Amino acid sequence: MNNGKQMKAHTITTDEEWSIRHLQGESWIENYWKSRDHPHRQFLVEKIIKFQPKTVLEIGCASGPNLYHIAKKLPDAEIKGIDINPIAVQKGNEWLKQEGVSNVKLEVGKAQKLEQYAEKSFDVVFTDAVLIYIAPNEIKHVAKEMLRISHTIILNEWHVFNKPLAYFLSLYHYLRTLNRSFKPRSTSLGFYVGHWARDYENLFEQFVSKEKIRITKLPKEVWNDKGWRRWGAIIEVIE
Ligand SMILES: C[S@@+](CC[C@H](N)C(=O)[O-])C[C@H]1O[C@@H](n2cnc3c(N)ncnc32)[C@H](O)[C@@H]1O
User: How confident is the model at residue 42 (pLDDT cuts 50, 70, 90)?
Assistant: First the structure.
């Protein structure tokens, strides 16, 4: 998916950089829209539509390539997407309309600010390559809020399956940040491997029982990139 010539996704390290990314050109927004046929989308969309949700929210939807597919498969569902980048939202709404999709609405919004949504307002809330930009000092709040507003959470993010490695890397990250104000208290909050990876089981176990969490390794054929092959996972939290 990294076919933008202006700035490659892996050079982006924080979510704030995404909000001003249009200043570096809009081609990445179009590239996401054009990546609708990327194989990982079908895999993720299948995981979502099997719940036959009536209400869906994607956090960090860019111009809506995933929501385009969900809308085609669930024409009666009420579908929302939020993204930190205003141009991605504007373009996405235009392109969805051009494609005749009328049940998706994209708005500017931030993963860290979900207060406007009432408890359990969505059947499914999902992210696709977005929490990899959320730093350890914010992830716990985001996870708790996602649980509050949804019945089911589905994430396509970077998960560490090897728990001793997760522990070691988190400790390493902790030692490196000792002089900063942020002090992680648990191994679940994340470590930096080009993006933020973390132990999502450990993270969600702070809020729900282990039986409600299901983690599946992303098959390499659906995203054959070094990072996604190693860390890519679908994380489901089903209440
Ligand atoms: C790697 S792209 C993935 C886009 C989309 N989910 C997809 O699969 O095509 C990351 C997206 O997340 C958005 N984003 C980054 N941090 C965010 C945040 N804190 N809240 C909401 N959106 C965010 C970016 O603007 C960008 O559109």
Answer: very high
Angle, CA of 174, 146 and 29, to the nearest 5°: 85
Alpha carbon nearest to ligand 1 atom 23, residue? 60
- 160-182 confidence digits (pLDDT tens): 988 788 777 777 777 776 666 55
Give the side-chain half-sphere CA count within 13 A for 80.
Answer: 17
Q: For residue 186, what is the enclosing H or E element?
A: none
The pTM is what?
0.90
Domains of the chain: 9-238 (3.40.50.150)
CB 159 within 8 A of CB 186: no
DSSP 208: S
57 burial (CB, 10 Å; 0-12 / 13-18 / 19+) is: buried
- The string of pLDDT tens digits covering residues 58-102 is 999 999 999 999 999 999 999 999 999 999 999 999 999 999 999
Ligand 1: nearest atom to the Cα of 35: 9
Q: Measuring from each residue's beta carbon to the nearest atom of ligand 1, which residues come in under 6 Å?
A: 9, 15, 18, 32, 59-62, 65-66, 83-85, 88, 110-112, 128-130, 133
Phi, psi (deg, nearest 5) at residue 44 = -70, -45
Angle, alpha carbons 78-79-85 (nearest 5°)? 150
Residue with tokens 């054009």: 34
